[in-house]
Amino acid sequence: MTQYITPDLCDEYPELVQVVEPMFNNFGGKDNFGGQIVTVKCHEDNSKVKELVDTDGTGKVMVVDGGGSLRHALLGDMLAEKAASNGWEGLIIYGCIRDVDVIMQTDLGVQALATNPLKTDKRGLGDVDVPVKFGGVVFTPGEYVYADNNGVIVSPTALTMP
Length: 162
Fold this sequence. Notes:
It catalyses: 4-hydroxy-4-methyl-2-oxoglutarate = 2 pyruvate; oxaloacetate + H(+) = pyruvate + CO2. The chain is of the alpha/beta class and about 160 residues long. It has one domain (about 5-155): Ribonuclease E inhibitor RraA/RraA-like (Glucose Oxidase, domain 1, 3-Layer(bba) Sandwich). The chain is built from four helices and twelve strands; from the N terminus they run αβββαββαβαββββββ. The longest helix is centred in the middle third of the chain and has 9 residues, at about 75-85. It starts with 5 loop residues before the first helix and ends in a 7-residue tail after the last strand.
């Protein structure tokens, strides 16, 4: 497993990286992760997240724009387990998650705003692979995101540790 240290990546690639405003907490079993961006834009409905965790996520990070809602969890233990078993590197969720104790034991990077025990309604709503913006950064599908306990950064190209 490659270890990503965002301060080192910022120092090595200052002209490439954008730093997401600090707002995320690290909840996953992997405390650092990175990969190619796959986006989901949804509001209080994790139907599209559920669909994507069933696909091959090798080398990818799912960036979920939940509009910053703190009213429902967009990820729980079952979806996190499915994502890990399908090779996803991690998820960055602009919203909440639940089942934190189990997710912390899962081999998956997970960053989110907070926790909430309430699940979402599944109405089949949401968009996949569209640019999303939060934290002062646009997350473009196909670009790259890296996260650790120091923060989250985005780059138009893949970065390697110095």
